[in-house]
Amino acid sequence: MNSLVKDAKKAGERVGLISDTITIHGGKPLNGRIRVRGAKNLATKAMVAALLGSSESVLRDVPNISDVKVVRDLLEVHGVLVTETAPGVLHLDPRNVLQAHFAEIDAHAGSSRIPILFCGPLLHKLGEAFIPDLGGCRIGNRPINFHLDALRAFGAVVDKSYEGIHLTAPDGLKGAKIEFPYPSVGATEQVLLTAVLAKGTTELKNAAIEPEIMDLIAILQKMGAIISVEPNRVILIEGVEELGGYVHTALFDRNEAASWASAALATGGSIFVEGAHQIDLMTFLNVFRKAGGAFDIEDDGIRFYHPNPGHPLKPVNVETDVHPGFMTDWQQPLIVALTQAEGRSVVHETVYENRLGFTSALNEMGAEIVVHEHGLDGDYRRVPKRDLEQAAVIVGPTKLKAANVHVPDLRGGFSYLIAALAAEGTSTVSNMGIISRGYEHIVDKLDQLGADFTFEAQD
Ligand code: EPU
User: Where are the alpha helices (DSSP H) in 207-317?
Assistant: First the structure.
Protein backbone atom coordinates (compact mmCIF):
# COMPACT_ATOMS: atom_id res chain seq x y z
CA MET A 1 0.00 0.00 0.00
CA ASN A 2 1.24 3.49 -0.77
CA SER A 3 1.27 6.12 1.91
CA LEU A 4 2.45 9.67 2.03
CA VAL A 5 5.28 9.96 4.51
CA LYS A 6 5.03 13.46 5.92
CA ASP A 7 7.49 12.71 8.67
CA ALA A 8 10.74 12.99 6.74
CA LYS A 9 12.71 11.50 9.63
CA LYS A 10 10.65 8.34 9.52
CA ALA A 11 11.16 8.15 5.77
CA GLY A 12 14.87 8.83 6.06
CA GLU A 13 15.49 6.06 8.54
CA ARG A 14 14.09 3.35 6.32
CA VAL A 15 16.00 1.90 3.43
CA GLY A 16 13.87 2.83 0.43
CA LEU A 17 11.93 0.60 -1.88
CA ILE A 18 12.35 0.78 -5.62
CA SER A 19 8.80 2.06 -6.03
CA ASP A 20 9.23 5.07 -3.73
CA THR A 21 8.52 8.44 -5.35
CA ILE A 22 9.40 11.95 -4.24
CA THR A 23 7.56 15.10 -5.32
CA ILE A 24 9.80 18.17 -5.27
CA HIS A 25 8.76 21.82 -5.37
CA GLY A 26 12.00 23.21 -6.78
CA GLY A 27 13.68 26.52 -7.45
CA LYS A 28 15.01 26.98 -3.92
CA PRO A 29 18.61 26.72 -2.74
CA LEU A 30 19.69 23.88 -0.46
CA ASN A 31 21.18 25.31 2.72
CA GLY A 32 22.33 23.60 5.88
CA ARG A 33 24.45 20.83 7.28
CA ILE A 34 24.45 17.08 6.70
CA ARG A 35 26.82 14.32 7.74
CA VAL A 36 28.35 11.69 5.47
CA ARG A 37 29.30 8.38 7.00
CA GLY A 38 31.49 5.53 5.81
CA ALA A 39 31.86 4.98 2.07
CA LYS A 40 29.55 2.50 0.38
CA ASN A 41 32.54 1.42 -1.71
CA LEU A 42 34.64 0.67 1.37
CA ALA A 43 32.21 -0.44 4.08
CA THR A 44 30.77 -3.25 1.98
CA LYS A 45 34.26 -4.60 1.14
CA ALA A 46 35.40 -4.27 4.75
CA MET A 47 32.42 -6.42 5.75
CA VAL A 48 33.55 -9.12 3.28
CA ALA A 49 37.11 -8.89 4.69
CA ALA A 50 35.75 -9.86 8.12
CA LEU A 51 35.05 -13.33 6.65
CA LEU A 52 38.80 -13.91 6.45
CA GLY A 53 39.37 -13.48 10.18
CA SER A 54 39.47 -16.10 12.91
CA SER A 55 37.91 -13.69 15.41
CA GLU A 56 35.33 -10.90 15.54
CA SER A 57 35.74 -7.63 13.63
CA VAL A 58 34.15 -4.28 14.43
CA LEU A 59 33.35 -1.80 11.68
CA ARG A 60 32.23 1.71 12.61
CA ASP A 61 30.41 4.37 10.61
CA VAL A 62 28.63 1.86 8.39
CA PRO A 63 25.91 3.65 6.38
CA ASN A 64 22.31 2.45 6.43
CA ILE A 65 22.03 1.71 2.68
CA SER A 66 20.68 -1.25 0.78
CA ASP A 67 24.09 -2.39 -0.57
CA VAL A 68 25.19 -2.85 3.06
CA LYS A 69 22.02 -4.83 3.71
CA VAL A 70 22.73 -7.18 0.78
CA VAL A 71 26.27 -7.87 2.04
CA ARG A 72 25.04 -8.33 5.60
CA ASP A 73 22.42 -10.86 4.43
CA LEU A 74 24.99 -12.76 2.39
CA LEU A 75 27.39 -12.89 5.34
CA GLU A 76 24.58 -14.14 7.59
CA VAL A 77 23.54 -16.93 5.24
CA HIS A 78 27.19 -18.05 5.37
CA GLY A 79 27.07 -18.26 9.16
CA VAL A 80 28.67 -14.91 10.06
CA LEU A 81 27.02 -13.46 13.14
CA VAL A 82 26.35 -9.77 12.46
CA THR A 83 25.11 -7.49 15.23
CA GLU A 84 24.63 -3.74 15.23
CA THR A 85 25.54 -2.61 18.74
CA ALA A 86 24.95 1.10 18.04
CA PRO A 87 23.80 2.90 14.88
CA GLY A 88 26.44 2.18 12.23
CA VAL A 89 28.59 -0.07 14.46
CA LEU A 90 28.67 -3.63 13.12
CA HIS A 91 30.21 -6.58 14.93
CA LEU A 92 31.02 -9.38 12.49
CA ASP A 93 31.84 -12.77 13.95
CA PRO A 94 33.08 -15.29 11.34
CA ARG A 95 33.86 -18.17 13.70
CA ASN A 96 31.07 -20.38 12.38
CA VAL A 97 31.28 -19.85 8.62
CA LEU A 98 29.32 -22.49 6.76
CA GLN A 99 28.13 -23.44 3.30
CA ALA A 100 24.95 -21.53 2.41
CA HIS A 101 22.00 -23.04 0.57
CA PHE A 102 21.77 -22.15 -3.12
CA ALA A 103 18.33 -20.55 -2.68
CA GLU A 104 19.57 -18.28 0.11
CA ILE A 105 22.42 -17.02 -2.04
CA ASP A 106 20.33 -16.83 -5.19
CA ALA A 107 17.81 -14.63 -3.39
CA HIS A 108 20.39 -11.86 -3.80
CA ALA A 109 20.93 -12.34 -7.53
CA GLY A 110 20.94 -9.06 -9.41
CA SER A 111 20.94 -6.89 -6.31
CA SER A 112 24.58 -5.76 -6.10
CA ARG A 113 28.07 -6.28 -7.52
CA ILE A 114 29.75 -6.86 -4.14
CA PRO A 115 29.00 -10.65 -3.96
CA ILE A 116 31.79 -11.27 -6.49
CA LEU A 117 34.22 -10.35 -3.69
CA PHE A 118 33.11 -13.33 -1.59
CA CYS A 119 35.05 -15.65 -3.94
CA GLY A 120 38.50 -15.62 -2.31
CA PRO A 121 37.34 -15.52 1.33
CA LEU A 122 34.85 -18.39 0.82
CA LEU A 123 37.41 -20.47 -1.07
CA HIS A 124 39.84 -20.03 1.83
CA LYS A 125 37.22 -20.78 4.49
CA LEU A 126 35.18 -23.52 2.81
CA GLY A 127 37.14 -24.64 -0.25
CA GLU A 128 34.13 -23.74 -2.36
CA ALA A 129 32.10 -20.67 -3.31
CA PHE A 130 28.89 -19.97 -5.17
CA ILE A 131 28.28 -16.42 -6.40
CA PRO A 132 24.85 -15.36 -7.66
CA ASP A 133 24.29 -13.45 -10.86
CA LEU A 134 25.55 -9.90 -10.19
CA GLY A 135 23.63 -6.64 -10.16
CA GLY A 136 24.70 -3.04 -9.73
CA CYS A 137 24.06 0.05 -11.81
CA ARG A 138 23.39 -0.33 -15.52
CA ILE A 139 26.14 2.03 -16.61
CA GLY A 140 27.99 -0.25 -19.01
CA ASN A 141 28.80 -3.90 -19.67
CA ARG A 142 30.72 -4.31 -16.42
CA PRO A 143 32.42 -7.63 -17.22
CA ILE A 144 34.18 -9.66 -14.49
CA ASN A 145 36.91 -11.21 -16.64
CA PHE A 146 39.75 -9.63 -14.59
CA HIS A 147 38.26 -11.12 -11.42
CA LEU A 148 37.91 -14.62 -12.87
CA ASP A 149 41.33 -14.59 -14.57
CA ALA A 150 42.92 -13.54 -11.27
CA LEU A 151 41.10 -16.28 -9.33
CA ARG A 152 42.26 -18.87 -11.89
CA ALA A 153 45.84 -17.58 -11.49
CA PHE A 154 45.52 -18.34 -7.74
CA GLY A 155 44.47 -21.90 -8.64
CA ALA A 156 40.68 -21.64 -8.47
CA VAL A 157 38.53 -23.70 -10.83
CA VAL A 158 35.76 -21.48 -12.16
CA ASP A 159 32.53 -22.92 -13.46
CA LYS A 160 30.14 -20.31 -14.89
CA SER A 161 26.50 -21.15 -15.49
CA TYR A 162 23.30 -19.20 -16.05
CA GLU A 163 22.62 -19.45 -12.30
CA GLY A 164 25.90 -17.88 -11.21
CA ILE A 165 29.52 -18.86 -10.65
CA HIS A 166 30.69 -21.95 -8.82
CA LEU A 167 34.32 -22.00 -7.66
CA THR A 168 36.50 -24.68 -6.12
CA ALA A 169 40.19 -24.85 -5.23
CA PRO A 170 41.20 -28.53 -5.24
CA ASP A 171 44.88 -27.73 -4.59
CA GLY A 172 44.36 -24.66 -2.40
CA LEU A 173 45.12 -21.07 -3.43
CA LYS A 174 48.70 -20.06 -4.21
CA GLY A 175 50.27 -16.62 -4.68
CA ALA A 176 50.37 -15.45 -8.30
CA LYS A 177 51.82 -12.87 -10.66
CA ILE A 178 48.93 -10.86 -12.09
CA GLU A 179 48.82 -7.82 -14.34
CA PHE A 180 45.52 -6.09 -15.11
CA PRO A 181 44.88 -4.57 -18.53
CA TYR A 182 43.15 -1.73 -16.62
CA PRO A 183 43.38 -0.74 -12.94
CA SER A 184 39.97 -2.08 -11.92
CA VAL A 185 38.82 -1.23 -8.40
CA GLY A 186 36.80 -4.41 -7.85
CA ALA A 187 39.39 -6.75 -9.36
CA THR A 188 42.14 -5.19 -7.20
CA GLU A 189 39.97 -5.86 -4.14
CA GLN A 190 39.44 -9.42 -5.37
CA VAL A 191 43.20 -9.99 -5.52
CA LEU A 192 43.78 -8.42 -2.08
CA LEU A 193 41.04 -10.49 -0.41
CA THR A 194 42.36 -13.68 -2.02
CA ALA A 195 46.13 -13.14 -1.80
CA VAL A 196 46.29 -12.38 1.94
CA LEU A 197 45.71 -16.05 2.86
CA ALA A 198 47.15 -17.63 -0.30
CA LYS A 199 50.38 -19.62 -0.01
CA GLY A 200 53.36 -17.52 -1.11
CA THR A 201 53.69 -14.05 -2.55
CA THR A 202 51.39 -12.29 -5.00
CA GLU A 203 52.54 -9.48 -7.26
CA LEU A 204 49.77 -7.36 -8.74
CA LYS A 205 50.68 -4.93 -11.51
CA ASN A 206 48.47 -2.07 -12.74
CA ALA A 207 46.45 -2.14 -9.51
CA ALA A 208 43.81 0.42 -8.59
CA ILE A 209 44.96 2.76 -5.80
CA GLU A 210 41.72 4.53 -4.88
CA PRO A 211 41.52 5.75 -1.24
CA GLU A 212 38.91 3.03 -0.57
CA ILE A 213 41.50 0.43 -1.64
CA MET A 214 44.10 1.97 0.67
CA ASP A 215 41.54 1.81 3.50
CA LEU A 216 40.86 -1.86 2.72
CA ILE A 217 44.63 -2.51 2.81
CA ALA A 218 44.77 -0.76 6.19
CA ILE A 219 42.01 -3.07 7.46
CA LEU A 220 43.78 -6.18 6.16
CA GLN A 221 47.02 -5.00 7.79
CA LYS A 222 45.13 -4.66 11.11
CA MET A 223 44.04 -8.28 10.61
CA GLY A 224 47.65 -9.43 10.23
CA ALA A 225 48.21 -9.27 6.46
CA ILE A 226 51.50 -8.19 4.88
CA ILE A 227 50.81 -5.91 1.94
CA SER A 228 53.14 -3.32 0.43
CA VAL A 229 52.10 -0.69 -2.06
CA GLU A 230 55.03 -0.13 -4.39
CA PRO A 231 55.57 2.65 -6.94
CA ASN A 232 53.79 2.53 -10.32
CA ARG A 233 50.62 0.71 -9.28
CA VAL A 234 52.36 -2.46 -8.04
CA ILE A 235 51.05 -4.18 -4.90
CA LEU A 236 52.93 -7.04 -3.21
CA ILE A 237 51.07 -9.36 -0.86
CA GLU A 238 52.88 -11.96 1.24
CA GLY A 239 50.36 -14.63 2.19
CA VAL A 240 50.04 -15.45 5.90
CA GLU A 241 48.68 -18.56 7.66
CA GLU A 242 45.92 -16.87 9.62
CA LEU A 243 44.23 -13.48 10.05
CA GLY A 244 42.52 -12.05 13.14
CA GLY A 245 39.71 -9.53 13.37
CA TYR A 246 39.90 -5.76 13.05
CA VAL A 247 38.45 -2.64 14.64
CA HIS A 248 38.09 0.12 12.07
CA THR A 249 36.20 3.29 11.28
CA ALA A 250 35.30 3.35 7.58
CA LEU A 251 36.70 6.06 5.31
CA PHE A 252 34.07 8.76 4.60
CA ASP A 253 32.01 8.54 1.42
CA ARG A 254 33.81 10.76 -1.12
CA ASN A 255 31.13 10.20 -3.70
CA GLU A 256 28.33 11.30 -1.42
CA ALA A 257 30.32 14.39 -0.35
CA ALA A 258 30.94 15.36 -3.99
CA SER A 259 27.25 14.78 -4.78
CA TRP A 260 26.12 17.24 -2.08
CA ALA A 261 28.77 19.71 -3.25
CA SER A 262 27.26 19.65 -6.74
CA ALA A 263 23.78 19.99 -5.21
CA ALA A 264 24.87 23.18 -3.42
CA LEU A 265 26.31 24.56 -6.65
CA ALA A 266 23.35 23.67 -8.87
CA THR A 267 20.75 25.12 -6.50
CA GLY A 268 22.77 28.23 -5.58
CA GLY A 269 22.99 27.11 -1.97
CA SER A 270 25.48 26.27 0.75
CA ILE A 271 25.97 22.83 2.30
CA PHE A 272 28.33 21.91 5.12
CA VAL A 273 29.27 18.26 4.61
CA GLU A 274 30.36 16.98 7.99
CA GLY A 275 32.87 14.15 7.73
CA ALA A 276 34.33 15.21 4.34
CA HIS A 277 38.14 15.39 4.19
CA GLN A 278 40.08 17.56 1.78
CA ILE A 279 42.87 15.10 1.06
CA ASP A 280 40.62 12.53 -0.63
CA LEU A 281 38.69 15.18 -2.57
CA MET A 282 41.56 17.29 -3.93
CA THR A 283 40.89 16.53 -7.58
CA PHE A 284 37.18 17.22 -7.14
CA LEU A 285 37.86 20.48 -5.27
CA ASN A 286 40.02 21.80 -8.14
CA VAL A 287 37.24 21.21 -10.66
CA PHE A 288 34.60 22.57 -8.28
CA ARG A 289 36.61 25.78 -7.90
CA LYS A 290 37.22 26.09 -11.67
CA ALA A 291 33.46 25.75 -12.22
CA GLY A 292 32.90 28.77 -9.97
CA GLY A 293 32.13 26.94 -6.72
CA ALA A 294 33.63 27.94 -3.39
CA PHE A 295 34.51 25.87 -0.33
CA ASP A 296 35.75 26.34 3.22
CA ILE A 297 37.72 23.51 4.72
CA GLU A 298 37.17 22.91 8.45
CA ASP A 299 38.52 20.21 10.75
CA ASP A 300 35.20 18.38 10.84
CA GLY A 301 34.07 18.83 7.25
CA ILE A 302 33.84 21.06 4.19
CA ARG A 303 31.32 23.80 3.35
CA PHE A 304 30.52 23.84 -0.37
CA TYR A 305 28.67 26.86 -1.76
CA HIS A 306 27.78 29.02 -4.71
CA PRO A 307 29.58 32.33 -4.00
CA ASN A 308 27.27 34.41 -6.25
CA PRO A 309 23.80 32.85 -6.24
CA GLY A 310 21.78 34.02 -9.21
CA HIS A 311 24.92 34.44 -11.34
CA PRO A 312 26.15 31.84 -13.83
CA LEU A 313 28.94 29.37 -13.10
CA LYS A 314 32.04 28.84 -15.28
CA PRO A 315 32.37 26.10 -17.94
CA VAL A 316 34.98 23.36 -17.42
CA ASN A 317 36.56 20.48 -19.36
CA VAL A 318 36.71 17.32 -17.29
CA GLU A 319 37.84 13.79 -18.02
CA THR A 320 36.93 10.95 -15.67
CA ASP A 321 39.76 8.64 -14.75
CA VAL A 322 41.08 6.22 -12.15
CA HIS A 323 42.54 7.69 -8.94
CA PRO A 324 44.05 10.24 -8.58
CA GLY A 325 41.98 11.46 -11.54
CA PHE A 326 38.45 12.82 -11.51
CA MET A 327 36.16 9.95 -10.45
CA THR A 328 33.47 8.73 -12.79
CA ASP A 329 31.00 8.80 -9.86
CA TRP A 330 31.43 12.58 -9.57
CA GLN A 331 30.58 13.54 -13.16
CA GLN A 332 26.82 12.88 -13.11
CA PRO A 333 25.89 15.33 -10.29
CA LEU A 334 28.45 17.87 -11.58
CA ILE A 335 26.83 17.89 -15.03
CA VAL A 336 23.61 19.25 -13.49
CA ALA A 337 25.58 22.19 -12.04
CA LEU A 338 27.33 22.71 -15.39
CA THR A 339 23.95 23.37 -17.04
CA GLN A 340 24.16 26.65 -15.09
CA ALA A 341 27.64 27.58 -16.41
CA GLU A 342 28.01 30.32 -19.01
CA GLY A 343 29.41 28.68 -22.16
CA ARG A 344 30.42 25.19 -23.21
CA SER A 345 31.60 22.49 -20.80
CA VAL A 346 32.92 19.12 -21.96
CA VAL A 347 32.84 16.00 -19.78
CA HIS A 348 34.64 12.92 -21.09
CA GLU A 349 33.61 9.64 -19.46
CA THR A 350 36.44 7.12 -19.85
CA VAL A 351 35.62 4.51 -17.18
CA TYR A 352 32.17 3.24 -18.23
CA GLU A 353 30.67 3.11 -21.71
CA ASN A 354 27.16 4.13 -20.73
CA ARG A 355 27.28 6.69 -17.95
CA LEU A 356 25.99 9.68 -19.87
CA GLY A 357 22.58 8.29 -20.87
CA PHE A 358 21.00 10.03 -17.90
CA THR A 359 21.48 13.39 -19.67
CA SER A 360 18.47 12.83 -21.98
CA ALA A 361 16.07 13.50 -19.07
CA LEU A 362 18.05 16.63 -18.20
CA ASN A 363 17.45 17.82 -21.77
CA GLU A 364 13.72 17.27 -21.25
CA MET A 365 14.08 19.56 -18.24
CA GLY A 366 15.57 22.31 -20.42
CA ALA A 367 19.29 21.47 -20.44
CA GLU A 368 21.29 21.61 -23.67
CA ILE A 369 23.51 18.53 -23.60
CA VAL A 370 24.81 16.57 -26.60
CA VAL A 371 26.45 13.18 -26.04
CA HIS A 372 29.20 12.14 -28.50
CA GLU A 373 29.51 8.36 -28.56
CA HIS A 374 33.25 8.28 -29.25
CA GLY A 375 34.54 11.32 -27.41
CA LEU A 376 35.99 14.48 -28.88
CA ASP A 377 39.46 15.20 -30.23
CA GLY A 378 41.48 18.34 -29.92
CA ASP A 379 42.02 20.83 -27.15
CA TYR A 380 39.48 19.22 -24.83
CA ARG A 381 41.64 16.18 -24.25
CA ARG A 382 44.83 15.27 -22.51
CA VAL A 383 45.26 11.81 -24.03
CA PRO A 384 42.49 9.64 -25.46
CA LYS A 385 42.19 6.77 -22.99
CA ARG A 386 39.95 3.89 -23.94
CA ASP A 387 37.73 2.75 -26.80
CA LEU A 388 34.62 3.00 -24.71
CA GLU A 389 34.82 6.69 -23.92
CA GLN A 390 31.97 9.14 -24.51
CA ALA A 391 31.74 12.92 -24.21
CA ALA A 392 28.93 15.21 -23.06
CA VAL A 393 28.95 18.77 -24.32
CA ILE A 394 26.90 20.99 -22.04
CA VAL A 395 25.95 24.47 -23.20
CA GLY A 396 24.60 26.87 -20.60
CA PRO A 397 23.22 28.52 -18.74
CA THR A 398 19.77 27.06 -19.40
CA LYS A 399 16.82 27.46 -17.07
CA LEU A 400 15.70 24.06 -15.79
CA LYS A 401 12.00 23.28 -15.74
CA ALA A 402 10.06 20.73 -13.72
CA ALA A 403 9.46 17.20 -15.07
CA ASN A 404 8.51 13.69 -14.03
CA VAL A 405 11.65 11.57 -14.11
CA HIS A 406 12.52 7.97 -13.33
CA VAL A 407 15.82 7.11 -11.60
CA PRO A 408 18.04 5.12 -14.03
CA ASP A 409 21.05 4.40 -11.77
CA LEU A 410 22.51 5.50 -8.45
CA ARG A 411 24.45 8.66 -9.37
CA GLY A 412 22.16 9.52 -12.28
CA GLY A 413 19.27 9.34 -9.81
CA PHE A 414 20.92 11.76 -7.41
CA SER A 415 21.51 14.06 -10.39
CA TYR A 416 17.79 14.03 -11.16
CA LEU A 417 17.07 15.02 -7.57
CA ILE A 418 19.44 17.98 -7.91
CA ALA A 419 17.89 18.98 -11.23
CA ALA A 420 14.38 18.80 -9.74
CA LEU A 421 15.51 20.86 -6.74
CA ALA A 422 17.05 23.49 -9.05
CA ALA A 423 14.10 23.61 -11.47
CA GLU A 424 11.17 25.99 -11.03
CA GLY A 425 7.89 24.11 -10.44
CA THR A 426 6.88 20.67 -9.22
CA SER A 427 8.76 17.55 -10.36
CA THR A 428 8.40 13.92 -9.42
CA VAL A 429 11.32 11.52 -9.17
CA SER A 430 10.26 7.86 -9.15
CA ASN A 431 12.26 4.64 -8.60
CA MET A 432 13.87 6.27 -5.55
CA GLY A 433 14.88 2.91 -4.08
CA ILE A 434 17.89 2.82 -6.41
CA ILE A 435 19.21 5.96 -4.71
CA SER A 436 19.02 4.25 -1.31
CA ARG A 437 21.57 1.70 -2.57
CA GLY A 438 24.21 4.34 -1.94
CA TYR A 439 22.81 7.44 -0.23
CA GLU A 440 21.93 7.07 3.43
CA HIS A 441 18.83 8.84 4.82
CA ILE A 442 18.40 10.77 1.59
CA VAL A 443 14.93 12.05 2.44
CA ASP A 444 15.98 13.06 5.92
CA LYS A 445 18.97 14.96 4.53
CA LEU A 446 16.87 16.80 1.95
CA ASP A 447 14.62 17.84 4.82
CA GLN A 448 17.60 19.09 6.85
CA LEU A 449 18.69 21.18 3.87
CA GLY A 450 15.33 22.91 3.58
CA ALA A 451 14.04 21.15 0.44
CA ASP A 452 10.28 21.45 -0.17
CA PHE A 453 8.93 17.96 -0.96
CA THR A 454 6.58 15.13 -0.14
CA PHE A 455 7.69 11.54 -0.18
CA GLU A 456 5.48 8.64 -1.18
CA ALA A 457 6.69 5.40 0.31
CA GLN A 458 5.36 1.85 0.21
CA ASP A 459 4.44 0.52 3.62
N1 EPU B 1 36.37 -3.98 -16.01
C2 EPU B 1 36.56 -5.01 -16.90
N3 EPU B 1 36.70 -6.29 -16.39
C4 EPU B 1 36.64 -6.54 -15.06
C5 EPU B 1 36.43 -5.49 -14.16
C6 EPU B 1 36.29 -4.21 -14.66
O7 EPU B 1 36.62 -4.79 -18.11
O8 EPU B 1 36.77 -7.72 -14.67
C9 EPU B 1 36.17 -2.62 -16.53
C10 EPU B 1 34.73 -2.16 -16.28
O11 EPU B 1 33.86 -2.62 -17.27
C12 EPU B 1 34.87 -0.66 -16.29
C13 EPU B 1 36.26 -0.46 -15.68
O14 EPU B 1 36.93 -1.69 -15.78
O15 EPU B 1 34.86 -0.18 -17.60
C16 EPU B 1 36.26 0.01 -14.26
O17 EPU B 1 35.58 -0.91 -13.43
P18 EPU B 1 36.02 -1.17 -11.91
O19 EPU B 1 36.25 -2.63 -11.75
O20 EPU B 1 37.13 -0.25 -11.56
O21 EPU B 1 34.73 -0.73 -11.14
P22 EPU B 1 33.90 -1.56 -10.05
O23 EPU B 1 34.81 -2.16 -9.05
O24 EPU B 1 32.89 -2.41 -10.72
C25 EPU B 1 33.77 0.43 -8.37
C26 EPU B 1 32.64 1.16 -7.69
C27 EPU B 1 31.96 2.06 -8.70
C28 EPU B 1 32.97 3.02 -9.27
C29 EPU B 1 34.16 2.26 -9.89
C30 EPU B 1 35.25 3.17 -10.38
C31 EPU B 1 31.95 -0.40 -6.02
C32 EPU B 1 30.92 -1.32 -5.52
N33 EPU B 1 31.70 0.20 -7.17
O34 EPU B 1 33.14 -0.35 -9.37
O35 EPU B 1 30.98 2.77 -7.97
O36 EPU B 1 32.37 3.81 -10.26
O37 EPU B 1 34.71 1.36 -8.91
O38 EPU B 1 35.80 3.89 -9.35
O39 EPU B 1 32.97 -0.18 -5.36
C40 EPU B 1 28.98 3.90 -7.63
O41 EPU B 1 29.32 3.97 -6.45
O42 EPU B 1 28.01 4.53 -8.14
C43 EPU B 1 29.78 3.05 -8.53
C44 EPU B 1 29.35 2.65 -9.72
Answer: 211-223, 254-267, 282-290
State the catalytic residue, choosing from 137, 153, 318, 405.
137
**pLDDT tens per residue, range 290-312:** 999 999 999 999 999 999 999 99
With H, G, I as helix, E, B as strand and everything else as coil, classify residue 84.
Answer: strand
User: Is 137 noted as a catalytic residue in this protein?
Assistant: yes
For residue 264, name the pLDDT band (cuts at 50, 70, 90): very high
Which ranges in the chain are annotated with CATH 3.65.10.10? 3-36+252-456, 40-249
> Stretch 183-190: mean pLDDT, rounded?
97
Check residue 6 and give its pLDDT.
42
Closest C-alpha to ligand 1, atom 32: 41
Rounded Cα–Cα distance for residues 184 and 325 (Å): 14
User: Which atom of ligand 1 lies closest to the CA of 144?
Assistant: 8
Q: In this model, does residue 29 exceed pLDDT 50?
A: yes
Ligand 1 interacting residues, C-beta cut-off 6 A: 40-41, 113-114, 137, 140-147, 182, 184-187, 208, 255, 327-329, 351-352, 410-411, 438
CATH code linked to domain 3-36+252-456: 3.65.10.10
Average pLDDT (351-373) is 94
3-state secondary structure of 27: coil
Q: Which of 27, 273, 300, 299 is nearest to 288 (CA)?
A: 273
Q: Is the separation of the CB atoms in 343 and 396 below 8 Å? A: yes
* CATH number of this structure's domain 40-249, picked from the four choices 3.90.1210.10, 3.65.10.10, 3.30.70.3040, 3.30.530.20: 3.65.10.10
Per DSSP, the three-state class of 198 is coil
